[in-house]
Design a protein that fits this description.
The protein is α+β, with helices and mostly antiparallel strands. The protein has 15 helices and 41 strands. A hairpin with a 2-residue loop joins strand 29 and strand 30. The protein is elongated and about 160 Å long.
Length: 907
C-alpha cells in the first residue's frame, strides 16, 4: 500500500510539473498573431458584422491567465452609414488560473480603455443592435434562454471566493442617433472604478460621466455580498448626482436577490428645481403651467419595502413648491390586492399647475400640412379601438384608505377640509367624501359593487348620493354591466329641486347668466333614466321642472358614428322672454335698434358652415307646447315634427295659434350640397295683424284680420345670399281694418295739405278699409305686386310695383278711384279736390310719397283736349286732311304720332 501511494504521488507530481511547464512554455512558442485572422473571420461569420482587432494581441496562461489587445472594432450591418457598432481602444484582463479549479476567482486587473458603443435607428425603423437575419447567432429568445433538456437552471452564482485588484472602465462613451426623429444624444467621459471587490467586504463604487456635456455621478458602496451569493442580505448605500441639480441617496439593503428578492431602502431626494434641471439639459420645460413659478421646488423622502407579493411605502414626505404631502401606502397579494393608504396634503392651488386658457387654445391646422383625401378610397372608421382593462384583481379587492386635504383651489373655487374615505372587502365598497366649498358643505356617499367572481364580466351595482352647499342633492342609482367585454350602463338620475341662483350665491360667485327677469332660473328639478352602451344612448322618463315650466322628454341615439336621433318633447308652458338677456342700451322703447345703429359691413367673410354632421344624421323628433311667450307674442298649441336623413330634413307639420289666428307650415331643408336650400309653404287664418306689428316690429301701421298663403324657395345660409335667391308667390288678405299714418282719401283729394303744400290737422290720419288684397310674386329677392287692391266706403285703391329686398328700395304706384260719398266707416269729414295717383319710392327705412302730377296732366290733356269734340272736328275736316297729305309734311307724320302716343300715356 505505501508503495502504491508513493507511485501515485510521483505520478501526480509529474503531471503537475508537466502542466505547469506547458502553461509556461506554450505561450512562448505559440504565435497568437498567426491565429488573429481566423479569430476575426469566425467572429465576423458568427455576428454578421465586420470584426477587427489590433496586432498587439497577447495571451498568457501561468501563473496569471491573461488576455490583452487594442483597437477592437465590431462594425454595423449593411445599411447603416456609421462604421462602428462597438470599438475598444485597449483591453486587459489577468485572472489567476489554478484557484479557478476551486471556484475562487482572483482577478489581478480588468481594464477597459475608451470603449465606445453607437446605437442607431434609421429612418426606416431599422436598428443596429439586433442580429442580422439568417446569421448563426440569430436565435429566438426562447431558444437562447431555454436550459438544455434534462437540466435545471441553478440559482445563485457558482463562486466560493472573489477578489479583484483593479477593475476600471476609462473614458468610455455611448452615442444614440435617431435618424427618424433627427435627434442625437451622447454620454461621454464615462469612468467606472470598483475597489475592494470581494464577497466579504463592501465594494467601493465610483461612476462619473457627461450626459450631453453635463455631469452625472454615482458614488457609494454595495455589499458585502456574503455566502452563498444571491441568498443573503446585501447592503446598499450610494448617492446619485446629476447636472449639478439632482441629488438622490439610496440606503438600505436587498435580501435574497436571486431566490426571493426583497428591498428595504430609504430614499432621500434633496430639494431641486425641475425647471433648472430642464434648463441644464438645454431642453424646454415639458409641462405648460399657468404660473411659470410652479414646479420650481421638489424634495422627497420615503421608506420603501417590496418583494414579489408586497409593496409598502412609509414615512413619505413630498415638498412641492409651497405644498407639503405626507403619505403611506401598502399593497399585498397582487392577485387579490389588499390596499391601504393614507395621504395628507396641507394645501395646493391647482390653477397654478393647469395650462392657462391661452395655452389650451388649439392651433389651427394649415391646409398645406393636411393630407389630401383620396376620393377613391373608402373613409377609415372613426370609431376608436376598444380599450381593454384587466378587472381580475377586483375579484378579491380589499381596500381601506383615506385622503385629507386642508385646502384646494380649482377653477378659482376654494375647497377646504377635504376628507375622502374608501373601505370594503369582497362586498360593496363604501365611499365617503366630505369637504367645504367656499365654507359651504359638500358630501358624496354611497356604495360601488360587489364586482362578482369574474370582475369585468358581471353586473356592478352603483348607488351614490351627492349633497352640495345645502342646495344641490343628486342621486345616481343603477348598474354597470359587462364593463370589460361590452360595457353598458343603466342608471336612474334624480336631482332634487334646487335654486341655481342660490347655489352660486353660496359659492360666492356671480350668476353666469344674465336674464331679463332676475327671478328666472330660480328653480330646477330633474329626473331621468339613462341607458347607454358604446353604440347607443337612450334617456327615458325624463322630467325637467324649470321655474313654472314642466318638460317631459325622451331621447334615443343609435350608431353614434352616423347618429340616428329620435326625440319627443312635451312642454306645458314657458315665457322665453324671461330667460333672454335684458334689452341692451341703445334700444328704443319697443326694443328696436335706434337709427344710428349700423349693420355689419357687407362683404366680410363669414366662416363656412360644415354640414357634414347633418348629412350623416338621421332624425325623427317632435315638440308639443301648450303655451309659449316669445318677444311678447303669446303662442299656443304648438306642434312641430322634424324628420330627415342623408342631409334632407322635412318640417311637417308646424302648427300654432297666435294673435287670435292659426298658423300652419310645411318645409324642407336640404344640406346635401355646400350651399343649403329650403322651401316653405305657409298658411295663416284669421290672424290679427295690428298687435303682431306693434309687438314684433314696433310699428302701428296696419289693422285687420289676416288670411295669407305664401310659398317661397331660397338658398344659402347668409342673409344677403338668402335675399338674392328668394323666389315664390303668395297672397295676403286683410279684412275690416285700417292703414294708419296715411289718409289716402285726403292724400288724393287734398294735394296741397297732404304733400306739405298746406298746413295739416293734428289728428293722426288713417284709411279704413273693408278689404285689402295683396297678391305678389318674388323673383330673386324682388317682390312684385301686379294688382294690390283696397276696398273702402269712400274709395277704391289699386297699387302695383316692386319692393327690392336686396337693395331695400321701393317703386310703387297707388291709384285711387272714388266710388261713393265721403261718409263711411265713421268718417264724417267733408273733403274736396280731385283724385291724385301717388308714387312711393325711396328705401324701406325712409319711403318717399309724392303725387303723380305728370299722370294727372296726361289724363287731363287726353280727356279735355285730345278727346274734345272741337279738336276731333278740326282733325277730321277736309281742310285738315288736305294739309296733312302734303308731301312736305309726310316726314313729320311718324314723329307726330309718337309724340301723340307719349302725350296719351299715363306715366
Amino acid at each position: 500500500m505505501p508503495k502504491i501511494l508513493k507511485w501515485a504521488l510521483i505520478v501526480a507530481g509529474s503531471l503537475v510539473v508537466v502542466i505547469i511547464a506547458a502553461l509556461l512554455v506554450i505561450p512562448r512558442f505559440v504565435d497568437v498573431q498567426k491565429y488573429k485572422p481566423v479569430l476575426e473571420s469566425k467572429v465576423t461569420e458568427a455576428t454578421g458584422r465586420p470584426f477587427t482587432v489590433g496586432d498587439d494581441l497577447h495571451l498568457s496562461l501561468f501563473p496569471w491567465a491573461g488576455l490583452s489587445f487594442s483597437d477592437l472594432h465590431l462594425g454595423n450591418p449593411e445599411g447603416f452609414a456609421e462604421k462602428d457598432f462597438v470599438a475598444v481602444k485597449s483591453f486587459e484582463v489577468r485572472v489567476k488560473l489554478l484557484p479557478l479549479l476551486s471556484k475562487d476567482i482572483q482577478v489581478k486587473r480588468l481594464i477597459i480603455n475608451e470603449p465606445q458603443i453607437v446605437l442607431i435607428k434609421n429612418k426606416d425603423g431599422r436598428v443596429n443592435w439586433t442580429q442580422p437575419p439568417g446569421k448563426p447567432g440569430d436565435k429566438s429568445a426562447s431558444e437562447s434562454t431555454q436550459p438544455p433538456a434534462g437540466k435545471e437552471s441553478g440559482l445563485g452564482l457558482p463562486i466560493k471566493a472573489l477578489a479583484v485588484g483593479d477593475f476600471s472602465i476609462k473614458k468610455g462613451s455611448a452615442l444614440w442617433i435617431d435618424h427618424a426623429a433627427g435627434t442625437r444624444r451622447q454620454i461621454s467621459n464615462l469612468n467606472l472604478n470598483l475597489r475592494d471587490v470581494s464577497l466579504d467586504r463592501p465594494i467601493q463604487l465610483a461612476f462619473s460621466a457627461l450626459v450631453d456635456e453635463r455631469p452625472v455621478s454615482l458614488e457609494g458602496t454595495v455589499g458585502h455580498v456574503g455566502q452563498p451569493i444571491g441568498q443573503g442580505i446585501v447592503p446598499l448605500d450610494f448617492s446619485i448626482s446629476a447636472l449639478d441639480e439632482l441629488k438622490l441617496r439610496v440606503k438600505g439593503n436587498i435580501a435574497n436577490p436571486v431566490t426571493n428578492p426583497a428591498i428595504d431602502v430609504a430614499l432621500d431626494l434633496a430639494e431641486f428645481s425641475p425647471r433648472k434641471l430642464s434648463a441644464a439639459l438645454g431642453q424646454p420645460f415639458p409641462i405648460a403651467t399657468a404660473d411659470a413659478q410652479t414646479l420650481n421646488r421638489i424634495a422627497l423622502t420615503a421608506g420603501v419595502k417590496a418583494d414579489p407579493t408586497h409593496v409598502a411605502v412609509t414615512d413619505g414626505k413630498l415638498d412641492l413648491d409651497q405644498s407639503k404631502l405626507t403619505f403611506a401606502f401598502k399593497a399585498a397579494d397582487f392577485a387579490k390586492p389588499d390596499v391601504t393608504f393614507d395621504l395628507n396634503l396641507d394645501q395646493i392651488d391647482l390653477d397654478r399647475y393647469l395650462p392657462s386658457k391661452a395655452q389650451t387654445k388649439l392651433v389651427p391646422e394649415k391646409k398645406s400640412d393636411r393630407a389630401q383625401p383620396d376620393k377613391n378610397k373608402q373613409p377609415a372608421s372613426t370609431t376608436p379601438a376598444p380599450q381593454t382593462f384587466d378587472y381580475g384583481p377586483l375579484a378579491g379587492l380589499a381596500v381601506d384608505g383615506q385622503v385629507k386635504v386642508g385646502k384646494i383651489i380649482f377653477n378659482a373655487i376654494n375647497v377646504q377640509n377635504v376628507q375622502f374615505k374608501i373601505q370594503g372587502k369582497n362586498s360593496p365598497i363604501t365611499v365617503a367624501l366630505s369637504a367645504r366649498l367656499d365654507e359651504q358643505p359638500v358630501s358624496l356617499e354611497g356604495t360601488v359593487g360587489p364586482f362578482g367572481k369574474q370582475p369585468g364580466q358581471e353586473t356592478v351595482p352603483l348607488d351614490l348620493a351627492l349633497n352640495a352647499l345645502n342646495e344641490l342633492k343628486l342621486r345616481l342609482k343603477g348598474r354597470v354591466e359587462n364593463p370589460s367585454t361590452k360595457p353598458r350602463i343603466d342608471m336612474a338620475l334624480d336631482v332634487t329641486e334646487f335654486s341655481p341662483r342660490k347655489l352660486f350665491a353660496a359659492l360666492g360667485q356671480p350668476f353666469p347668466i344674465t336674464t331679463a327677469d332676475p327671478k328666472a332660473l330660480n328653480r330646477i328639478a330633474l329626473a331621468a333614466r339613462i341607458k347607454a352602451d358604446p353604440a347607443t344612448v337612450s334617456v327615458s322618463g325624463g322630467r325637467l321642472d324649470l321655474d313654472e315650466s314642466k318638460l317631459n322628454f325622451t331621447v334615443n341615439a343609435a350608431d353614434l358614428s352616423k347618429p340616428a336621433v329620435a326625440w319627443d318633447l312635451n312642454l306645458d308652458q314657458i315665457n322665453l322672454d324671461r330667460y333672454l338677456p335684458p334689452a341692451a342700451e341703445g334700444k328704443g322703447a319697443e326694443g328696436q335698434p335706434q337709427k344710428d345703429e349700423k349693420p355689419a359691413a357687407p362683404g366680410v367673410d363669414r366662416p363656412k358652415t360644415d354640414y357634414a354632421p347633418l348629412r350623416r344624421m338621421r332624425m325623427d323628433g317632435q315638440l308639443k307646447a301648450g303655451k309659449l311667450i316669445v318677444n311678447k307674442a303669446q303662442i299656443a298649441d304648438v306642434h312641430l315634427k322634424i324628420a330627415g336623413k342623408d342631409g334632407v330634413f322635412t318640417l311637417d307639420p308646424l302648427k300654432l295659434n297666435v294673435y287670435e289666428g292659426a298658423v300652419s307650415a310645411r318645409g324642407l331643408f336640404n344640406v346635401k350640397e355646400d350651399i343649403p336650400s329650403s322651401n316653405i309653404n305657409l298658411e295663416i287664418q284669421h290672424l290679427q295683424v295690428g298687435p303682431l306689428l306693434r309687438e314684433q316690429m314696433g310699428k302701428d301701421i296696419l289693422e285687420g284680420v289676416t288670411t295669407a298663403r305664401v310659398k317661397v324657395t331660397l338658398a344659402g345660409d347668409a342673409p344677403e345670399q338668402i335675399k338674392k335667391t328668394l323666389n315664390g308667390e303668395g297672397e295676403l288678405k286683410f279684412n275690416d281694418g285700417a292703414i294708419k299714418g296715411i289718409d289716402l282719401a285726403g292724400m288724393v283729394r287734398n294735394v296741397k295739405a297732404t304733400f306739405g303744400l298746406a298746413p295739416q290737422g293734428q289728428e293722426r290720419p288713417r284709411t279704413d278699409f273693408s278689404e285689402l288684397l295683396v297678391p305678389f310674386t318674388i323673383t330673386n329677392g324682388v317682390v312684385n305686386t301686379p294688382q294690390t287692391s283696397m276696398k273702402s266706403p269712400l274709395i277704391r285703391v289699386s297699387a302695383m310695383g316692386d319692393a327690392d329686398l336686396v337693395d331695400e328700395n321701393l317703386d310703387l304706384r297707388v291709384e285711387p278711384k272714388v266710388v261713393a260719398t265721403i261718409k263711411g266707416q265713421g268718417d264724417e269729414k267733408q273733403r274736396t279736390g280731385f283724385m291724385v295717383p301717388v308714387l312711393v319710392t325711396g328705401s324701406f327705412a325712409d319711403p318717399k310719397f309724392r303725387p303723380d302730377l305728370k299722370g294727372i296732366a296726361m289724363e287731363k290733356i287726353e280727356k279735355e283736349v285730345l278727346q274734345s269734340e272741337k279738336v276731333k272736328k278740326v282733325l277730321e275736316s277736309d281742310q285738315a286732311k288736305k294739309v296733312l297729305e302734303k308731301e312736305e309734311l309726310k316726314p313729320l307724320q311718324e314723329p307726330a304720332k309718337d309724340l301723340l302716343k307719349g302725350l296719351l300715356k299715363k306715366n
